[in-house]
Amino acid sequence: xxxxxxxxxxxxxxxxxxxxxxxxxxxxxxxxxxxxxxxxxxxxxxxxxxxxxxxxxxxxxxxxxxxxxxxxxx
Length: 74
Prior knowledge:
36% of the residues lie in helices and 0% in strands.
């Protein structure tokens, strides 16, 4: 896999336009009991990568901030 981190730090992330998002999709890991040939995450039963508790806590905090900002806006 190519290392692209230098590209991420040298450019500003573009502004995203459109309707407010209603679904937050999160990949919790690459372990899966089903081995689909067309899996976009390349997940399978032999893989052991899973989201750690620190990342999960950050995700839940982000989701809570997102929900509270939507409630205060309406």
